[in-house]
Amino acid sequence: MTNTILPFYQPTNKVVVRSNGFYQYDAEGKQYTDFDSGVWCVNLGHSHPGVLRVMEEQAKISVHHGYRFRNLQSELLSEKLLGILNLKGGKSVFLSSGSEAVNLSITLAKHLTGRNRILKTDNSYLSAYGHGQISDQNAGLLTVKMNDIEALSQIDFSEFAAYVFEPGTSFGLIRFPDPDFVDLISRKARKAGCFLIADEVTTGFGRTGKWFGYQHYNIQPDMVVCGKAMGNGYPVSSLSVSAETARQFEKAHFRYAQSHQNDPLGCAVALEVIRIFEESGIIRHCNETGSYFLEELTSLKNRFPGKIDDVRARGLMLAAELAADIDGESISNRLFDDGFVVGFKQNILRFMPPLTINNKEIDLLVGALERNLNAL
Fold first, then answer.
1. Which residue in 247, 246, 229 sits closest to 238, CA to CA?
2. Are residues 113 and 201 in the same domain?
3. Residues 36-52: pLDDT tens digits?
4. Which CATH number characterizes residue 292's domain?
5. What is the b/e burial string over 227-241, where b = at least 16 CB atoms within 10 angstroms of the residue's CB?
6. Range(s) of the domain holding residue 148
7. pLDDT digits (tens, 9 = 90+) for 165-178
8. Residue 43 included in any domain
9. How far is CA 308 from the centre of its chain?
């Protein structure tokens, strides 16, 4: 196959020809168990039949319509999503990617507050462009070390438009902030009129064992951003805001226009994803299999002292941090050769499989990891 794709990232030479459930298949017919959910997107598994059915049905009715019309799918999705997020009386907008939605939430916070500074914790990921990049335009971005309560006393929150809170650092490291830290930074932000934005692009839709990651904490965000698993592989994202934020927006309106905004196809897909979540008990399954996965990784850590330094997990968002002298990239590559797709960064193996994963597949993965550790 001729390669005419710009190499912004480095894939293998394997060509995927089919994806189904938690499996992917290459052109040679080899099966891979996807423990990375297609970069954390397919929480219901690849090619879910219910999602495919709705995609086909809605594609025959209306895919995209432009600025002159409203559509029923976006209205129903907003109402449904606001209810789950406890943002009743609020409003939503639907876009295509998490990066777009995060950038829009920050732009909105800056517009409504008249402030230009943004606060985030280290290892969190704002977006692939715009406010997520290092540039002169983002000179006001301040990063505070996660769980460093002492550092919060040095911050003048009245300078900041928003604190962007990622409830679990998906930046490849799988770390979770302490409740005391989140509580304090949220209270300081709110007292200073600084918006609290929950970035649920990765942690949303059951990944952490709750509908949304922020629900592990005693907070209620002003804005919530969703993406990735919201469309189960189809590109749709959202920004939902509280009733009070919506009222402020009505008084200080600004225009934001891009081609794919509130598209009926993406909204219909997201509605089906929510329906499946509500009717399938998948979040309960996530907690059960996540607990089992954590037990197996912890047992493996105990059997390999000096090779696995730490195991971290929340729901089906897990990591095994390897010792510094272990060639983690080699292990990651060997696991791929064994038919397992896992994430890897900074000597940390990341496991974020579809929430439909079962104990049998977990056993196979842990067994393969054990064999590769034994071979060192």
1. 229
2. yes
3. 999 999 999 999 999 99
4. 3.90.1150.10
5. bbbbbbbbbbbbbbb
6. 51-280
7. 999 985 769 999 99
8. no
9. 25
